[in-house]
Design a protein that fits this description.
With 733 residues, this protein is of the alpha/beta class. The strands form 7 sheets. Strands 5-4-18-17-16-6-7 form a 7-stranded mixed beta sheet, covered by helices on one side. It has a 6-stranded mixed beta sheet with strand order 24-26-25-28-23-27. The N and C termini lie far apart (66 Å). The structure holds ligand MGD (2 copies), iron/sulfur cluster (SF4) and molybdenum atom (MO). It comes from Arthrobacter vasquezii. InterPro entries: Asp_de-COase-like_dom_sf, MoPterin_dinucl-bd_dom, Mopterin_OxRdtase, Mopterin_OxRdtase_4Fe-4S_dom, Mopterin_OxRdtase_prok_CS, Prok_molybdopt-oxidoreductase.
Length: 733
């Protein structure tokens, strides 16, 4: 499989780009991949990353040998400290607590919170474990915080949700790319090479209230940066769509042949003429018109969205407006053009397909659909009545912790909600009010620190499995090193617990066997994996390694190879979706009219109140549980920093480097002020990579999108004041 002994072809542990890498084990103990061996990371040629990796990928192996690594189950005693216990005791204790909770409060008092970083096998088995071994409907996952608005919009419009419905390399032929609320230059650096053709054609258009690293890519005639007020993207999109309709730029034959709902959308955008949109968003009317015309030019146009437009209480509608625009221009399913959303977590795509969502069964099936329930019950060998109904979406699930009628015993797999969930102080209170909290992790994350019982699990390079990247392409994750003796795979943990709880179905702990079952469970569903198997995925890796020269510019490089779902048995997968039909019964896409709830100019906030936007930095990943432990990344960015415009800062008496307090009715965050003209004077920016007093989510609210359950992560209103002046200021006084 690998080009040299001790080298393993696999993919990065972090984001959904899933860059291909080779792990080379050397030094003493290399033969047995033991703890004394050292692991080197190198970029591997693959269509998505073309050998490139970002800083996080390059430094990822440091975590394998990290001194903080959990090596045995830890039980919290009455003294509040964690103490090591045996696996037998840990599993026995869980069994007792689950049975006691179920007996006293009913099965729905046991809850599960999963993650979009879990392999397909773990995500699938976790859904089955919750429904059959625990008997609960209360399962959801952190993908609700990530992809739910884009997914809801995609399902509504296309009848199917696959982040990119085309291979990423297709972007290489684009003349125009509109990127809304996505900062890939920081969040997926190797992705930027796919923007080059559009940049060369002067057609990269980035919509972001900040001059992000991605917005910078538009400078020197490479495109345009539109800098609307935060959370006004919906109005902006309606304005662009208005011009497209009124100035005859739509693709009429396409709209006629491939969509429903045109008249309603025409009516809904009529009141959004460019000058009015300009007063709401701050984007000049001229640029709105110019953007509409550029998008309609021939030569290849793509529209892409990211969390900046999706993580709002109106995120589904904003993503829908972007899709409406794309449909009117005839982009989705037209070769050389397209619409897509950039999935975030490593397995953010596969993790949302196989059953860890509250409302879903494997294969992207609806848990309320009788035919879906019958199929999955058949694969699981249980009566349909044993599969519970829909549970609660993540924010509601977390709000129910410790409440009457809520969850009292919670399992967490692959999420650090104490840092990453909105309204984090109330989540922390919820975690603390549980009767029993079990957290599976390989580090003592802030959530694990709250747990009654922590179970040490395997890291990416220690386990086999599959991940589905942002293109819907199934990839092999492969083990390169042995895990520490005390850690266990999550499949093993679920299988042993299922046995102890006398679950009414089998729970294999071998990844390939689990995948075989997943294939059967997904067969016939929207996300059908039945034709994909390990041998095929391994052979592809093998071919890519052996015949790199031959493959160059052909299969792998045109993005055509690889297991893109839907991949029914006997087919060869689906790199490009929607070429002939959309997934609704009549084969047409739905144009769904949407409108902002307010048309007030955004800048009309009360005096002194600023809009806090949150997002990511290049160096850190998510809650930071992993990357804050990597020395190089931590030394570059070791504390929470507030990006604030120099004019705003001057008005508040804040100098660069001062310690500031950012506050609202939910709490206070401490940060170091970093003066930057990249943010608008009406807004400030924090990352959510830091815990404790630097945790931005202390300020975010539990308000959610009514369709998707996505929290309003991207904006909240805050006040900013100096806590401690900058060093130079103190000296100067
Ligand atoms: N370095 C790094 N990379 C990552 C991750 C990470 O944590 N760190 N996480 C991965 C995951 S899970 C995800 S989901 C992706 C996310 O990837 P992105 O979506 O690229 O990341 P964000 O930083 O959350 O948001 C993108 C941009 O949205 C802008 N924004 C904020 N509010 C608004 C608004 O109202 N309108 C518009 N138009 N823009 C707005 C922000 O200024 C920001 O530049 O990244 C993945 N890659
Ligand atoms: N304010 C604000 N908040 C946000 C966002 C934002 O933009 N702004 N973005 C949201 C988004 S898009 C996302 S995706 C979430 C992500 O937020 P989190 O759910 O906190 O994501 P991570 O930090 O990746 O947490 C994963 C945890 O699981 C562990 N882990 C990793 N792999 C595995 C595994 O295979 N098994 C187990 N058991 N553990 C594992 C890691 O060590 C870590 O502790 O945050 C959301 N929160
Ligand atoms: S871009 Fe994402 S997948 Fe690629 S190396 Fe960086 S974190 Fe890993
Ligand atoms: Mo995400």
């Amino acid at each position: 499989m690998c080009s040299s002994p001790g080298a393993t072809a696999t993919h990065c542990p972090y984001c959904a780009l899933q860059c291909a890498m080779t792990l080379t084990v050397s030094g003493p103990g290399a033969a047995s991949s033991s703890a004394s061996a050292s692991v080197e990371v190198s970029g591997r040629d693959f269509p998505t990353n073309q050998s490139g990796l970002c800083r996080k990928g390059w430094s990822s192996a440091e975590l394998l040998k990290h001194p903080d690594r959990l090596r045995e189950p830890l039980l919290k005693n009455d003294d509040g400290e964690h103490h090591p216990i045996s696996w037998d005791r840990a599993l026995g204790l869980i069994r007792d607590r689950v049975l006691a909770t179920r007996a006293r409060y009913g099965a729905d008092a046991v809850g599960v919170f999963g993650g979009g970083g879990l392999t397909n096998e773990k995500a699938y088995l976790l859904g089955k474990f919750a429904r059959l071994a625990l008997g609960t409907s209360r399962i959801d996952y952190n993908g609700r915080f990530c992809m739910s608005s884009a997914a809801a919009a995609g399902n509504r419009a296309f009848g199917l949700d696959r982040g990119l419905p085309f291979p990423l390399t297709d972007l290489g032929s684009a003349r125009t790319i509109l990127m809304l609320g996505s900062n890939t230059a920081d969040t997926m650096p190797p992705f930027v090479q796919h923007l080059q053709a559009a940049r060369d054609a002067g057609g990269l258009i980035v919509v972001d209230p900040r001059r992000s690293a991605t917005a910078e890519l538009t400078s020197e005639g490479r495109g345009r940066h539109l800098q609307p007020a935060p959370k006004t993207d919906l109005a902006l999109l309606l304005g662009i769509t208005h011009v497209v309709i009124m100035e005859g730029l739509i693709d009429e034959p396409y709209v006629h042949r491939r969509t429903n709902g045109y008249d309603d959308v025409v009516r809904s955008v009529a009141p959004w003429w460019p000058e009015r949109v300009s007063s709401v968003t701050g984007v000049p009317a001229r640029l709105i018109r110019e953007t509409a015309h550029r998008l309609a030019e021939p030569g290849g146009t793509y529209i892409l969205t990211g969390r900046g437009v999706e993580q709002h209480a109106n995120g589904t509608d904003t993503a829908t407006a972007a899709i409406n625009l794309a449909l009117l221009l005839g982009l989705p399913g037209t070769p050389g053009n397209g619409y897509g959303t950039l999935t975030g977590q490593g397995n953010g795509q596969g993790g949302r397909e196989h059953g860890q969502k509250a409302d879903q069964l494997p294969g992207y099936r609806k848990i309320t659909d009788p035919a879906a329930r019958k199929h999955v019950a058949g694969v699981w060998g249980v009566p349909e009545s044993l599969i519970p109904g829909p549970g609660l979406p993540a924010v509601e699930l977390l709000a129910s912790l410790g409440q009457p009628g809520g969850v009292r015993c919670l399992f967490v797999h692959g999420a650090n909600v104490a840092v990453s969930a909105p309204n984090a102080s109330s989540v922390l209170m919820g975690l603390r009010s549980l009767d029993f909290l079990v957290v599976c992790d390989f580090f003592l994350s802030e959530t694990a620190a709250e747990a009654d019982l922590v179970l040490p699990v395997l890291q990416w390079a220690e386990e086999e499995g599959t991940m589905t990247n942002l293109e819907g392409r199934v990839l092999r994750r492969r083990a390169a090193v042995s895990p520490p003796p005390g850690a266990r795979s999550e499949l093993w943990i679920m299988a042993r617990l299922a046995e102890l709880l006398e679950a009414p179905s089998s729970f294999p702990d071998d990844p390939e066997t689990v995948f075989t079952e997943l294939r059967a469970a997904s067969a016939g569903g929207l996300a059908d994996y039945s034709g994909v198997d390990y041998a095929m995925l391994d052979a592809e890796l093998h071919d890519a390694e052996l015949h790199r020269g031959e493959l160059h510019g052909r299969e792998l490089h045109d993005g055509g190879a690889g297991a893109y779902w839907p991949y029914p048995a006997g087919s060869s997968g689906t790199p490009r979706l929607f070429l002939d039909r959309f997934a609704h019964a009549d084969g047409r896409a739905v144009l769904h009219p949407v409108a902002p709830s307010s048309s007030a100019p955004f800048a009309s906030a009360p005096d002194g109140v600023l809009t806090l936007m949150t997002g990511r930095l290049l160096e850190h990943y998510q809650s930071g549980a992993q990357t804050r432990r990597v020395s190089d990344l931590h030394s570059t960015s070791s504390e929470q920093a507030l990006q604030i415009h120099p004019v705003t800062a001057a008005g508040l008496g804040i100098l660069d480097g001062a310690e500031v307090e950012v506050s609202n009715e939910r709490g206070i965050v401490r940060a170091v002020a970093r003066l930057s003209p990249a943010v608008r004077p009406d807004s400030v920016f924090l990352s959510f990579h830091f815990p404790g007093t630097g945790n931005a989510n202390v300020l975010t609210s539990s308000e959610t999108d009514p369709v998707s359950g996505m929290p309003e992560f991207k904006t909240t209103q805050v006040l900013v004041r100096v806590h401690r002046p900058a060093q130079s200021e103190v000296v100067g006084v």
